[in-house]
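FYI - complex with zinc ion, inputs then prediction.
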Amino acid sequence: MTATAPREEQLWSRCAGCASLLYRKRLRRNLDVCPECGEHARLGAPERLRQLVDPGSLRPLADRLPEADPIDFVDVVPYPHRLTAARASTGLVEAVVCATATIGGHPVVMAVMDFRFLGGSLGCAVGELITRAAERALDDRVPLVLVTASGGARMQEGVLSLMQMATVSQAIAALREAGLLTVSVLTDPTYGGVAASFATNTDLVLAESGARMGFAGPRVIRQVTGRALPEGFQTADFLLRHGQVDMVVQRRSLRGRLMALLAATRAGRPARPSVPRQEPPPHRERLAEEEPSPPTTEADGTPAVRDAWDTVRMARHPGRPTTLDYLDSVFDGFVELHGDRLGGDCPAIVGGVARLAGRHVMVIGHQKGHTTAELVARNFGMASPAGHRKALRLMRLAARLGLPVVTLVDTPGADPGVSAEEHGQAAAIAENILTLTVLPTPVLAVITGEGGSGGALALAVADRVLMLENAVYSVISPEGCAAILWPDRSAAPQAARALRLSAPDLRRLGVVDEVVPEPPAAAHDDPAETALRLRAALVANLLPLLDVPPAMLVRLRRQRFRRFGATRAGQRAGAR
Ligand SMILES: [Zn+2]
């Protein structure tokens, strides 16, 4: 006890629901659920594990990874300082605790997130630890139980944190293929990149009473729509009503429900099939040092040093060619296909069959527009769940027909609206990401303009990821990042620099395989020349993929995304 904390504060706490003053020991005995009003207080990971698993069965998995700060992120405080403070205040190494255990005698692997640690944010280490937990479940042939609590991807690790959505999703996909049960328990709050990946692409999704889950947070949705949110929006009961969770469970019943589900599925446990195990690749040194990307040059041959904020403005320029423009200029014979077959056809996603240099391909892309009317009609390229499901349908169709998939990514982000949340935006994105990690056909993605967060990744888990020179790709918009980490939104230019969202930066980080140079001015000044360059890059990158057997493609694609967690772990390993 510190000298300034009166004894009463240690013994009593005030309920966030009804403001009753509660005796802490009594509250803990009641699993941190208010006996007066039923409010479920947030739990840290150690206490959550204690409540769920059989006494004495918990065996924590290793959680020490080499320190790293992959993009040297600084806002008003350097990122390593925030990490140190989070460790000191929680006693945890990272925002997730992974362990093997039994629940009612059923062996499981658990990964439990802790919101107290930097908002439970998903960074490279968290992604790596959850992926290792999933791999342990695969090795042990036992179910994986995830307990989520997160504000989303960790901004301070830039787009590398976004990649973790794919890394963990492909580990979930491997469990799916092996016939092993995956369960997620949503606790309050579960948002953003965690909601749009492993919180919702598991076999079963349970929501703890009082939990809220969604892709976009209520503050963002209010800001974008300018409307008050419906009563109970994004709560567990809302999720149940909209078909997004299997059940809502009171905390005191959670352990019993998990036991019953584990028992039911254990009966039909499959015999051990031969599942290719994805080996974590060897740690890599910083790509910057071993493979410098060619410096971009101006027309006169001098290296161009464009400020990240200028690039953001170029990427958003209304004259920039759109997906439909490229379908006209880069591809031939485009035939558009419509609809998700579930009740909608989202105008922000266009897709269909086309030819590229004489070869048939499936093209799927975000569609913006050049005029305000076009932008409004296309919802500014922000896809609804119906858009993501249309894309999913076309991806699967392509695999069945043996067509390669080419995606063109240009979106500020997925639609952050009330209706999108009602229709399961998080799960729609999560399913696309997971499906792309295992799609048995070549996938080639190009970030052509704005690569905004999970909405971009939903089309960008690919064998090769290309990026136009003046495009950007980021875990969060610079404005959004500035609003959270800086005193105000006017710091967006600084945030843009800190996020490392430009093509050369992402090439150095290995997130992008090739930067497609734009004409000396920019894509919007010379769309015809841009199309020629894009076409050449697409053909050069697609042809080698056509000869690779599908199983090998999937294996290599998994390695491509598996390495982002290891990248972080490998960086500076020798420096500390
Ligand atoms: Zn209460």
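The first strand starts at residue 12 and ends at 14. The CA atoms of residues 344 and 386 lie 6 Å apart.
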